[in-house]
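Below: protein 1.
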Amino acid sequence: MGLFDDDKVNLLSLREKAYNYRWATLNDGIIPLTAADPDFPVAEPIVRAIHDYSKDGYFSYGPAEGLMEFKEAIAQWFDQRHNAPVDATCILPVNSAAFGLFTAAQCVLNRGDNAIIPDPVDFLFRKSIENVGAEVRTTRLDKNTGEFNMSHLDSLVDKRTKALFICNPNNPLGLSISVDQLNALIAFAERHDLWIVSDEIWADIDYFKTVTSIASRSLNDYPKRIIVSGLSKNFGLAGLRIGYIIAPDELTYQKILYVSKHHSTAFGLSGIAQAAGIAALMDSRFWLDEFLIHLKKMRALTLDFIDKMDAFSSVSPNSTYLAFPKLISTERSSEQWVKAIMDKSHVALVPGGKNWFEESSEGHIRICYATSEGILTEAFERMLSVKNQFV
């Protein structure tokens, strides 16, 4: 029996606990292929670590800088899994990767500055920049390759431009950035003296060894880079809100720590979450490796389904557990199409549109396939049975 067999999905628990457009927010009978959160229970070492942390009944404050054991586990993970040397003392555990993006924006931007983000990308990029009072400038990606248009990037820069934010791999496209393009982005940032803020929350969901961290030894060195990541996508720990920020040096780390407000105790990552994070990175690699085998099979099922849907264009994501086909042969908007498929097949999807993934995402829908083969097959069969009604 495998960790990701159909019977490992506990629908009773999911309907009680899985919020954010998932099982607990939808009526019975609806299958959510929505928020990017796995339907499977986490690795047993994580459960044991939470139990062991809790058994003496103490839940005290931890250090504002985070537990050194967790920071060292992150540094080891990057070194061994991503060929990326990072300094444990320059890592700040934070309350979610989303908070990490907001904190990184506060570190590198001031009111009146501007920063460049890819289009499409998750709405949190825009929110984090606008939260500082800075302006967002977008550059459209090639949706088949995930590539940036380098000449267009140069045209966006003025004296107020301070940062380039990237998402590698990209949500919603499910595409990673090549080594050559990462080096081109580093050269671009160096030419204009920009920070690179790299969201690498999806970096471990890599099917073909295509994902490269901005801190990798394989890239040209660049001092002005900040990594934001966490353990929600790779280890299914979204509810524990385990994020972290990796600074390139002590000075930047201290600024990140200051703007995080961790010393005020208003913010910070709980000790129990960090204990879970240590168990994930140090003792649960087997779970992630088996998860990737399962996901690769679900990816194949998803791409086969997309090819059978007359209303969808073909796609070929190489990472994440997301697919983002374009709607074709239909006059419906993304929102209208998602509503119609919910009404007719009782499957929930995420629409494109500026409020979700920037302007160029309109006319697309996002499918999350981090569920069991049985659930995914049923969802696809439902949609295929009514596909002729979506024109």
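Below: protein 2.
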Amino acid sequence: MHTQVINLTRFGDLLQTQPVLSGLKARGGRVSLVCLDSFKGAAALLRDLDGVRVLPGARLLAHLDRSWPLAVAELTAWLDTAGSPGRVLNLTPTLTGRLLGRAIQGGDVLGFGMDTHGFGQYSSSWAAFLQAASAYRGCSPFNLVDLFQRVAGLDPGEFRLRAPDAEALDRAGALLSAAPGQRHVAFQLGASQDYRRWPVSAFVRAGRVILDRTGRSPVLLGTASEGHLAREFAEMADYPSTDLTGRTDLPTLAAVLSRMDLLLTNDTGTMHLAAGLGVPVAAVFLATAQPFDTGPYLEGSISLEPDMPCHPCSFGDRCPHGLACREAVDGRAVGELLAAGLAEGEWSATPAFPARVWQARRDARGFMDLFSLSGHEGQERSRWIRIQREVYRQFLDQHPYTDAVAWTGADSEFRSKLEADLRRCALMLTLVEEQGRLLSLRPSAPIRPKFLANCQNLEDILAASPTLGVLGPLWRYQSKEQAVDMDAFLFLCGRYRELLEMFGRRLALA
């Protein structure tokens, strides 16, 4: 069977579909990819593809500005050459992705689909969870790569991108020929948003320690638009570095990374490229970035976070602390950690380290997980993530619940608020269930407006909870899908009741 995978997202997310492509290919049949024309170069880094179809997104938008019939004509011509894949897997939850999937397939789409009335559809609970979790920092305990694989119906697999070819390696060798020393570490100074960027001065301090302790000089990577950061680095550093910002296309960037002993980076697409090439990664996560969901999918890689109670912050919130997290991860301490790891072949940190340090390792079920090297496993956030991973995995796979992971530690304000949220949600869910049962017996009962209002109230209560927030949009997506059949809706209510009860048992509620 021919499976066509749609991914219209950015560079890093596109790379992270590699295990899906490999998993589908291993099952047999052809695998092709639909991506935006701006990321055609990134698609060349992927393995296990029988073809790539490039959607001319920018040109279609330009046609829409001039005359929508031109855009329709071009899209129709593009669709006429798309062929007829046996199935379509859409990993892009936007309206554009859903429309494209339906236009190609004309029927059911795996992942994110659309029904005949224009309403969104989800082929599995994992797909609904993936979209819901993207907006909630503290309620997203799974790495995006694992989520992609579960949406595709695959078990966790290997993340391995295409190795650089000889020409790219030659270009990389020429660029690095003037770099001081024989061995190097790469620094990715930029980030998608400036507030998520580790200060250049911190990179400079880390580079000084690494050079002094190991003899490895930094190679600065980034786009031409990030060249000012490299110039700032050179002005601040009292030691040599090699500036390659704006000098590498994607194949050459991959080749340069393959010659590095380590990449020190912000949360970027370059981080995912290095992980897919097997290059050791140390990544700094600031503001809204957190490693549990967007960290490098590479065992042994390390992720660093500011040890601040407000981290990670929510999207759209104005920072009341003046972006203090950007200065909270000390560059010299990071340099000492990395220098020791490069010299000894393993990473180590103590509770005295001035940041949270996590190392990536697979858990017992093969999902990528993070384990603390700095004594932060006992923090409330860490314990709650552990519980969420086990409970949500069983909920989404519709497996019987087990009590493998439980809350440990003394009572706290965090736990008390979580208990209160669970009780409040359970009471509202019970009311929704009872009203739903009455409507199943008497569809014309005047209680329907109250029933609909309470369904919305349940969503609002869930969405407002800092610990259960992901369940708000998840409930909205799933309850609307089941609303046409009251028996199916009540079955869904039962599943949510079991979910809340399991969380309660994990917290040892009476």
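The first helix runs from residue 11 to 15.
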